[in-house]
Amino acid sequence: MRYLDINREPRPVSVIGLGTTSTIFGPGGDDRVDALIAAFLEAGGNCIDTAHIYGMGQSEKALGRWLGRSGRRDEVFLVTKGCHPQVDADGRFGPPRMSPEAIEGDLSESLERLGTDHVDLYLLHRDDESVEFGPLIETLNAEKEAGRIGAFGASNWTIDRIDAANRYAADHDLEGFTVNSPGLSLARPTEMFYPGTLFADDSTRRWHADRQFPMLAWSTLAAGFAGGTTTEASSVDEVARVYFSDDNLERRRRAEGLGRDRGLTGLQVALAFVLSQPFPMVALVGPSKVPNLNEALGALELGLTEQEMAYLDLEG
Ligand SMILES: NC(=O)c1ccc[n+]([C@@H]2O[C@H](COP(=O)([O-])OP(=O)(O)OC[C@H]3O[C@@H](n4cnc5c(N)ncnc54)[C@H](OP(=O)(O)O)[C@@H]3O)[C@@H](O)[C@H]2O)c1
């Protein structure tokens, strides 16, 4: 495993992080969670990503049960997120929920579900551009001061909003966002798989490279498209709708070809593409099965040259 430092947090974070949106992080999945996280820690992984909204709280509760059973809180770099709109039983979103009160309330509930007194990284899960970021930054600084969060950042915020929020922080002698969490995979979605989220486009990637600003990227396997598999979490139809463009099929074909020469799978090459971005990167993967996790971890063996990166992204 490789590690990087995020904002001088005491624990370096593994460059592959484990996502927890799969259904095993819910009622009845504890045995599979034990096996999955044990394999991840065994491989040197420590970053585990959850959110207040995942499974309507089931993901955090499942992680809380694991933390209680295992007693391994100190080995984990724990990430959670808050301020997502409410989602009803049919998947319809309510209005934005972005306010100091929502940060405080969601974080309190997250910590209670997780059975811990702090998380190592806290992310605002969505943005509401009509909300002033000053009070949000002040609240996040107060939570950090209180020891309930370590670093903090934004997920699905534009880089313009992150820049503006960080200017506010600098002008007021406060800490700003130190992590951005958009989607990023070799395959580029033709529409967003998760409504209202943001994928890192070319200018976002340049922004990260210019500042060496850390990214915690999600859907790094394009929800399973990278491996050409049907998954438990997403139907073939959903993945096809978002990722089956001619360009993405060609990107996957190139990844498979490059992998064949190295004894690796196309999925491992696609993940290596994310891990080889020229800025600090933590790539989240969301497997529910240990063999799938192990395949993803195999991507660490591959370093890609600039030329190979360009070839995979259809630039050469
Ligand atoms: N901040 C945000 O807005 C946001 C949005 C989306 C996701 N996330 C986070 O990012 C994590 C990862 O995103 P994701 O779940 O969309 O994406 P992903 O890692 O791109 O895709 C996961 C899917 O790929 C399948 N898969 C097939 N082969 C695999 C392999 N070798 N290794 C791993 N997975 C394989 C998995 O199937 P099996 O289940 O069969 O293993 C799973 O259904 C989430 O769990 C969540 O924590 C954050």
Segments where pLDDT lies below 50 for 5+ residues? none
* Shape designation: globular
Distance between the termini: 30 Å
Largest sheet: 8 strands, parallel
Extended strand count? 10
Query: How does CATH name the architecture?
Result: Alpha-Beta Barrel
CATH topology: TIM Barrel
Estimate nothing, just give the exact number of structural domains. Answer: 1
* CATH homologous superfamily heading: NADP-dependent oxidoreductase domain
Q: What is the helix tally?
A: 11
Q: What is the chain-wise order of helices and strands?
A: EEEHEHEHEHEHEHEHHHEHH
Give the bound compounds. NADP nicotinamide-adenine-dinucleotide phosphate
Give a written overview of the molecule.
α1 links the parallel β3 and β4. The two termini are 30 Å apart. This protein is α/β, with parallel strands linked by helices and 316 residues long. α2 packs across α3 and α8 packs across α9. The strands form two sheets. An eight-stranded parallel sheet has the order 8-7-6-5-4-3-10-9. The chain has a two-stranded antiparallel ribbon with strand order 1-2. The structure holds NADP nicotinamide-adenine-dinucleotide phosphate. NADP nicotinamide-adenine-dinucleotide phosphate binds next to β10 and α10.
